[in-house]
Amino acid sequence: MSQTISADSHICEPPDLFTSRVDTRYREQAPRLVRRKAGDDNWLFPDGSMLSLAGFASAGNWQGKTTSAMRFEDVPAGAWDPHARLKEMTIDGVSAEVVYPSYGMNLFRTVTDAGMQTACVCAYNDWVREFCSAAPGRLVGVGILPSLDLEAALAELRRLAKLGFTNVLIDGHPPIAHYYDDPVWEPLWTALQETGIYASFHLFAGTAPVFDGAPRLNAGERFLADYTIAPSLLERQFALMIFAGVLERYPGLRLLCVENDAGWAAHFLKRMDHVYLRKGPRYPKGIKSGLLPSDFFKRQISCIFQDDRPGILTLEITGSDCLMWGSDYPHNDSTWPQSQQVIAEMFREVPERDRVKITYSNAAKLYNLE
Predict the structure, then answer these.
(1) What domains does the chain contain, in order, with CATH numbers?
(2) What's the rounded Cα separation, in Å, for the pair 227 and 164?
(3) How far apart are CA 4 and CA 93, in angstroms?
(4) pTM of full prediction above 0.90
């Protein structure tokens, strides 16, 4: 079995992560785990919304489930204990993992006080650094940047750079007034390029609601449809940034499109170039160099996916340099503990060099794990 790196895995935050680490003035309203009268545990956020554990902690135990009810004691230890995590990785044939938050991804949407959001973000970043320090070179922590205060985000980015972080999660689908083609974000792109830290756009990690109305425990009859089309939220931000010339002005800026599949990318590249060539002369655009939109995407954006055979079948268009695989452990959509079987099926009749690049060497090079 060849070496495998998961470029998208997660932890499940300990119940008291925020309440025990943020400044005392925020602790009463900080995100926390609560037990409902029904007996299951849910994360409660400052805006009053709640999220169950099952979607974030049921890897390998999802098929046929008809309820999201779950208690923290049923969460696999590998989701929050780094030593148990290494055992789970061995079971799955994974040599290293890039670790993203779970409930921390909801800080963008559920925390409206800038000071509290920054406090929660810093608390998480300190904790995940401790988690990954148990296995340097095998666990790579991804930090979070606050979204409500740009100066606070820049300060935290500088702090994380000094601590050795190489990747940060940003608001993946901000409200319309703050889309990423807005010049207000130029200081962030400058700082990311200067520090060399990558910016991750993760599915469902953003301010704007993914579903019809605020996400809730029972999203109702539109859940399956909304879940299906959710990747389009990130696609829009990338298109806006490319056509506004952001990637052209910041050639060192590296963006990661995480857990958002990859099959869409081939059509996205083709359509961007078509639009640019056919409609571009009549509409404003920020691209000045003569490069095509697809050139910027291939140079600076990577797509990370779990199980996406259509994405593999479009390698002729995308190439293999901009793709990486991730197990999504311990989430409901994870390929754990059958990742090697999933990879074998997904890459059947695909050249070995492409499989190795996508499942190992692209991530190894990005995170200096070779």
Answers:
(1) 5-11+78-366 (3.20.20.140)
(2) 34
(3) 7
(4) yes
